[in-house]
Amino acid sequence: VQLQESGPGLVKPSQTLSLTCTVSGGSITTNLYWWSWVRQPPGKGLEWVGYIAFSGSTYYSPSLKSRTSISRETSKNQFTLQLSSVTPEDTAVYYCGRVGGGGYYDYWGQGTQVTVSS
């Protein structure tokens, strides 16, 4: 399984950040797998952003829930993160990953740097 993030590397404050994760070698609708977004701000640890399940159900970090939306395009085997009203505090490397049946991440994308700046 391979995951690849794509999207703009620079977003202006107050705009919406949009990233897509393209999955190959496995279907995002396969039972028991969850597809996740995680980010790492500079100098800080990993922060979970949210999941979209194989069923299409979504779950978000409480601290980001009001600004976050994760959707999917099954025909393209992609899932997308949208984070609205961004500020410089949303600057981070954003990763997509797969959570397996045991609740552990088993595959990751390489990550993509997103900078929020005017």
Give your account of this protein's structure.
The protein has 118 residues and is an all-beta fold. It is 0% helix and 52% strand. It has strands at residues 2-6, 10-11, 17-24, 34-40, 47-53, 58-60, 68-73, 78-83, 92-99, 105-108, 112-116. The strands form two sheets. Strands 2, 4, 5, 6, 9, 10 and 11 form a seven-stranded mixed beta sheet that branches. A hairpin with a 4-residue loop joins strand 5 (47-53) and strand 6 (58-60). The protein is globular, with a radius of gyration of 13 Å. The mean pLDDT is 96.
> Which of globular, elongated, flat, extended, rod-shaped describes the shape?
globular
Compute the number of strand runs.
Answer: 11
Spans of at least 5 consecutive residues whose pLDDT stays below 50 are none
The helix/strand series, from N terminus to C terminus, equals: EEEEEEEEEEE
Count of runs of 4 or more consecutive helical residues: 0
How much beta, percentage-wise? over 45%
**SS-based class:** mainly beta
Helix content: under 10%
Tell me the major beta sheet: 7 strands, mixed
The gyration radius over C-alpha positions equals 13 Å
The pLDDT mean sits at: 96
Straight-line N-to-C gap: 36 Å
